[in-house]
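Hi V.,

Quick status before I head out on leave. The structure for the redesign project is tokenized and pasted below; the design run finished overnight.
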């Protein structure tokens, strides 16, 4: 789809083949209402001049990527590519091959751990 945002394996955003890097765009993206359309398509919605605007978001794998894992007070916290942090709900931890995934955003959306975060997850679980 031409007018869609693509998300690569590292969680970077692209629109019309251009990487979106501006802080204000990323901040805007974090605050939008995200709705799952099917297994590989999400839709962002926002209001502009009292009209609902929409754009599809198509992830290469997952829309959110876990970039880091931090252990605080016996809790494992996930740093997500939208720069938010959430507690890991261990019951949502899943593996596809050797790649860990967890549910984020109030348990609504699956996120993939990048290589660094997967390593840190192992350290956090094993208590290193």
């Amino acid at each position: 789809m031409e007018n869609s945002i693509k998300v690569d394996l590292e969680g970077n955003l692209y629109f019309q083949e251009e990487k979106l890097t501006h802080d204000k765009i990323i901040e805007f993206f974090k605050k939008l209402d995200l709705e799952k359309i099917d297994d590989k398509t999400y839709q962002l919605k926002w209001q502009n001049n009292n009209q609902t605007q929409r754009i599809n978001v198509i992830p290469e794998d997952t829309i959110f990527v876990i970039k880091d894992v931090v252990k605080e007070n016996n809790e494992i916290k996930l740093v997500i590519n939208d720069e938010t942090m959430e507690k890991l709900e261990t019951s949502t931890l899943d593996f596809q091959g050797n790649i860990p995934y967890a549910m984020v955003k109030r348990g609504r959306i699956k996120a993939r751990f990048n290589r660094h975060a997967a390593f840190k997850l192992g350290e956090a679980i094993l208590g290193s």
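Above is the designed sequence. Residues 4-59 form one domain.

G. will cover questions while I'm gone.

Best,
W.
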